Structure formats: structure tokens, C-alpha cells
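Action item from last meeting closed. Structure (416 res):
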């Protein structure tokens, strides 16, 4: 009798935790890795709003086999189950040693195109929340982020299926800041600022620890993290959140960064285009739709760097940028701007003044994937446990994200 009572109590707790997620307005899908199809393949399905007919069952796939014609098929057996977690179960993304095997769980494009999960287009905002234990890596957790297989590099020399990038939105385990919650969005499905890669991304101030996935239960139970990203279309801001906290993160000297230097160039090209004189570094062929020009109406702070009889140098801090400005006095003693340089970029939140990319049709868009994304380099990516994935069609508030993050600290549940 005690056993039946314990099971019944666990069922009630599980239902309450699921309701904590699904009752937040805007939830379009929540996979807890407990809910299955009632028959047939018994794939994991999502909790969806009442009346919704698509519950987004997850297929198992190996994208190397799909695009390179190499490696074996993936099955659910390739995702070990923990049998406990914030919602009662979790899947493991393994450190695969076979370079032809990169398995993930996914909803094919044909089954999600124009569905509530297919968040895109004018005015649309999005949030992705993933409860995970990060063992290693900095790559994808979940989202619609087909990076493309068209990049010219060694790994694509023998590729059979070449496709342009079809990026929309996704949550990563850090990318340029490993272990942070990194949100990624794209306005064109492809690269940014003439770079081959998409560069509109944010990084939470907090960083998750690396925890071996085979740690004892007590260690795993205490190691759950809540990764999240929000894109607020109205504010034009992309924000990463770890355990309900965003925090500020800046990148100093973006000009020297391997990738973000492209954003620096896009900022400077926009500046040059707005000055009457032709600058020596100005590139008139730089596409205007790739300029990067965060708003700089009123400085948050201004610091005097140097001052002489001829002029002064100021460091002006704005919400998303820090700019070094050189001012020169004219014959009447009036200060005018002589030059400027972008010396810091805010990574959290990141300024994104676009709409999320809209694929032309269901055949060209990307799938929704969990654990990995399709990409040219075929890297292992994130490894560890994933115990829940939720997608919302709006930017969640800090209070809502803290409520979701609190679920990681509650007693782990066995499967209902």
C-alpha cells in the first residue's frame, strides 16, 4: 500500500511541475521525456496547449548519415535514460567517438512548418528553456538551427547533401563563452556581417559547471541547471539566462575577437557611411542590411580619457556599446567629432533589430532538434543530461524564468 501511495504522490508532484511550465502564457511545447505516444513507436511527445493536435513526437536521427551518407542509423537506444530528474526523466547526449555518428532527437520540418513551434517573422518573440546537466561542450541544446552544410571546409569535401543554412532560433551551452546560456537568432538563416557564421548571440553572466554524466545520483541531483534564452522583438534584445539570472556581459576590444570582429567592422562601416567624408577604411560595397548600429541617442555615462588645447577624448557608454570618441576644436573653439571607435560590445543582452528568419517553404526550413544541430563541422558539441525542453512564443519575464529555474532545486522525481 505504501508503494502505491508513493507512486500516486509522485504522479501528483509530476503533474504540478508540468503545470508550472505549461501554465505560463505562451508555452507552445514542453518535452519532459516522460510523456510518450500511447502506442506504436512510443516516441517522446510534448505537452501542448489544450485543443492542439500536433504534440511534436521526436524522431531519432544521425545527421552525418543523412548528409554525408556515412555511419549507422540512430535509435532511441542511443539516448540513455537517467530515470529521474526535475520532471522524472532525462536523456543523455553522449561523447560520441565515432566521427560518423552524431545523433539527435528532432521534429522533421514537414511536421512543424507553420505550426506554433515554427516561430518566425514580423513581430515574433521567443523563449527557449532547457533543464540540463552539462558534462562538456558549448554547442546546441535545442531549437530550429540548421547551420547549413554548404561551408567550404575539410569536413564537407565528400558531402552528398549540400544545403544553405536555415537558422531561426536556438539555445546553446555557451559557444564563445563555454557553459553560459547562449541564445542565438537569425534574420536570414545564414551568416552575419559578411561572416560565414551567424553572429547574433548573447551570453549569460553565469556559467554552468562541468559535471561528469556518470557521477553518483546524489551529485547529479544537485547539478541541474536551467538554461534559457529570450528574444524580445519589441525591445530588439536577445538575452541569456542561467538559473533565472541574466546578468551583464561585455566584450572588450571586439575588434580583436576572432568572430565578433565582424560586428565591429559592420558598426564602423555604418559609421563611415554616415559621415560626409570618405574614410580610408570605408567600404562602399558593404551591404546596408548588414550594418550593425545599436542605438546611441544618450550616453549612460561619459568618461574623460584625455584633454588638450586642441580637443579631448571621451569614452561614451551606451546600453549596448562603449565608444571612444575623439573631439577636435575648430577655429571658433567648438568641439566636433573627428573620429570614433567601438571599444566594447554588450553580449548580454545583445541588440538584434530584426525579425526571426522565415524560410520560404516547408522544404527549405530546418527541423527542431534537441541535443545537436545540423552543421558542417560535425563536432561532438554538448554532452550531458537534458531533463526538459520548453518553447514559448513570447519573451518570458525574469520572474517567470526564476519560477522555472526553481524546479531544478526541487527533489528529483522518478518516472511517473
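Sequence:
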Amino acid at each position: 500500500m505504501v508503494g502505491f501511495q508513493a507512486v500516486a504522490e509522485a504522479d501528483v508532484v509530476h503533474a504540478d511541475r508540468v503545470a508550472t511550465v505549461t501554465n505560463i502564457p505562451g508555452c507552445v511545447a514542453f518535452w519532459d521525456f516522460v510523456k510518450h505516444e500511447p502506442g506504436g513507436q512510443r516516441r517522446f511527445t510534448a505537452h501542448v496547449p489544450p485543443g492542439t493536435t500536433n504534440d511534436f513526437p521526436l524522431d531519432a536521427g544521425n545527421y552525418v548519415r543523412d548528409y554525408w551518407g556515412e555511419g549507422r542509423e540512430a535509435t532511441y537506444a542511443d539516448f540513455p535514460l537517467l530515470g529521474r530528474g526535475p520532471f522524472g526523466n532525462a536523456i543523455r547526449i553522449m561523447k560520441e567517438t565515432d566521427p560518423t555518428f552524431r545523433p539527435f532527437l528532432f521534429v522533421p520540418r514537414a511536421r512543424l512548418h507553420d505550426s506554433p513551434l515554427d516561430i518566425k517573422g514580423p513581430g515574433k518573440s521567443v523563449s527557449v528553456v532547457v533543464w540540463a546537466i552539462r558534462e562538456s561542450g558549448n554547442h546546441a541544446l535545442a531549437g530550429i538551427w540548421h547551420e547549413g552544410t554548404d561551408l567550404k571546409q575539410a569536413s564537407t569535401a565528400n558531402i552528398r547533401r549540400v544545403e544553405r543554412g536555415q537558422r531561426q532560433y536556438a539555445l546553446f551551452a555557451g559557444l564563445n563563452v563555454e557553459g553560459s546560456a547562449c541564445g542565438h537568432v537569425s534574420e536570414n538563416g545564414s551568416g552575419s556581417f559578411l561572416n560565414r557564421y551567424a553572429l547574433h548571440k548573447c551570453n549569460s553572466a553565469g556559467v554552468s559547471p562541468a559535471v561528469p554524466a556518470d557521477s553518483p545520483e546524489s551529485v547529479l541531483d544537485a547539478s541541474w541547471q536551467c538554461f534559457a534564452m529570450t528574444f524580445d522583438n519589441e525591445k530588439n534584445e536577445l538575452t541569456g539566462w542561467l538559473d533565472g539570472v541574466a546578468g551583464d556581459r561585455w566584450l572588450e576590444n571586439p575588434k580583436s575577437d576572432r568572430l565578433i570582429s565582424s560586428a565591429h567592422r559592420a558598426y564602423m562601416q555604418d559609421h563611415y557611411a554616415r559621415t560626409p567624408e570618405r574614410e580610408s577604411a570605408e567600404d562602399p560595397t558593404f551591404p546596408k542590411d548588414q550594418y550593425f548600429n545599436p542605438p546611441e541617442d544618450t550616453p549612460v555615462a561619459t568618461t574623460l580619457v584625455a584633454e588638450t588645447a586642441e580637443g579631448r577624448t571621451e569614452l561614451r557608454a551606451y546600453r549596448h556599446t562603449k565608444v571612444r570618441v575623439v573631439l577636435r576644436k575648430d577655429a571658433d573653439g567648438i568641439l566636433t567629432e573627428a573620429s570614433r571607435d567601438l571599444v566594447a560590445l554588450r553580449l548580454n543582452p545583445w541588440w538584434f533589430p530584426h525579425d526571426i528568419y522565415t524560410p520560404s517553404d516547408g522544404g527549405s526550413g530546418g527541423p527542431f532538434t534537441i541535443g545537436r544541430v545540423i552543421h558542417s563541422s560535425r563536432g561532438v558539441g554538448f554532452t550531458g543530461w537534458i531533463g526538459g525542453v520548453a518553447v514559448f512564443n513570447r519573451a518570458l519575464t525574469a520572474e517567470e524564468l526564476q519560477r522555472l529555474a526553481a524546479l531544478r532545486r526541487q527533489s528529483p522525481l522518478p518516472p511517473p
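Note appended to the action item: The two ends are 17 Å apart (CA to CA).
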